Amino acid sequence: MKFINREQELRALEEKWASKTAQLFIIYGKRRVGKTELIKQFIKGKNAVYFLASQSTEKDQLQSLGWAIGEQFGDSALARNGFTQWLDVFEYLKKNIKERFILAIDEYPYLAEADKAVSSLFQKGWDEFLKECNVFLILSGSSIAMMEAETLIYSAPLFGRRTGQLLLKPLAFRSSWQFFPDKSFNDFLGIYAITGGMPAYLAEFNPKISIEDNVLGKIFLPTAYLFNEVDFILRQELREPKNYMAILKAVAFGRTKLGNIVNETGLDKSLTNKYLSVLERLQIVEREFSVTESPAVKSRKGLYKLCDNFVRFWFQYVYLYKSDLEIGRNDEPLRKMKENFSVLESIAYEDVCRELVRDFENSMFYFERVGKWWDKNEEIDVVALNSETKEILFGEAKWSQKMIGVDIYENLKKKARLVDWNFGKRKEYYALFSKSGFTKDMIALAKKENVKLIHRNKLIL
Questions:
Q1: The total number of structural domains that make up the chain
Q2: Which end of the chain is more exposed for a tag (fewer CB within 10 A), N or C?
Q3: Chain segment 238-279, per-residue pLDDT in tens
Q4: Residue 141 sits in which domain range?
Q5: 130 CB-side CA count, 13 A
Q6: Positions of E strands within 240-302
């Protein structure tokens, strides 16, 4: 897979490496987000062993790890015979490490599944053998829930031993675009509306063919791994995937309030709350608050949304038509996609605008928070603010074939007056984001009133 960006994450790992002290570093994040590639990039050229755990017995795991470490240390007996227990691994490393050494164990949750005591053994191994060694131990995993339970939360056996942790998140829009640098903004936004910033999903797309052909071959085809991706994620992470699937379906089709989700699914309210919390932790759902809300009221307000572009696409075009797709009938989902895919592009564009707006803050003010604002009747796509300086930016994003005219700007100013935040004390700024550009009248007015105009991703005024 092409390795893109991750400079900040690599820098953090390199700083730990340069410290010359023992490190127990936790890397976790959802499947396909690029953890393995990050680890391999970091250990390249270093004295290191990368070990990918599997769903096999403890004996097999120790045998395979013994072979990997034996090969690295030139120990043919160890490579042939393997280890017999986990404490032997740590004792061996303590005796044989002469220079700084990395042991990266990927998919650590598989070890915990094979032996419930393994994290306690790693705790003992760290305390008794490794914490004074010149070792860099990486434990990585895709099961966010299990990684937290085994390594991060207070009750975890390894709690307090880690020297650092990294929750790897999907790539930002600009970084994702580096997968297809020759694509125009419009063309890549269509891909991003499907894949989000997930490297493995981006790598599946062929830039030489159309989005429709990519979808037909990489998602709608029953033998393609993305066809069952959402099912697989839920089965891997959760004990009751059908209930989570019902909740995700409700959110995907516009049920954004807790009460509406409860009514749609028929699940108990407290149970639904619990399931939603789990989906938030898995970075599939997020609870979004109006950007001007104070922390005191956040517990009572907020709307649920899918924060994973692929999950959103999957529910719209795979979930509804799965039976047809299983037997090779893709005409209807493809027709639906051609008919209303622009809706998903619009949602993605709004998210991208909230990312892009930070490119322009040097010409306005430092943004403390960026988000969206809404009340019962109105919403504003992009709002950035600074509570200390009492400055606020209002922005409208339009993914439309029509140019933005003065009417859109005037309506944005009307909506801004509804925002109850530092009235009479604040300094206001305005920005318009457009797929198709701006009318001559709007450009003239923007020059007069100092309105920021962003065409796709370029600041033109």
A1: 3
A2: N
A3: 888 999 999 999 999 999 999 999 999 999 999 999 999 999
A4: 7-167
A5: 28
A6: 285-288
